[in-house]
Amino acid sequence: MRCELVRAGGLGAEVGVNAIEKSWVLIRALHELEAQMNTDIHPRWADTHHPIHFNVYGISGGEWVGSVAGRCVIDATLG
Hints:
79 residues, three-stranded antiparallel sheet, 2 helices, 32% helix, elongated
């Protein structure tokens, strides 16, 4: 899956909104979803410990050093 986070408006630096830092809200929520999915699994996977995995394998964002990141792209798998 690919999720792109973009800050609203152009005031990121003035209000301190950093899209990369805010991405952790989404990542944390997806980890919670992973845990929930592993508590209610299909009988086929009943003998498998932790059959559903969430993995972030890429994250990118920011425009240049010293700027407040206006966007962040997260690449991940859930399944």
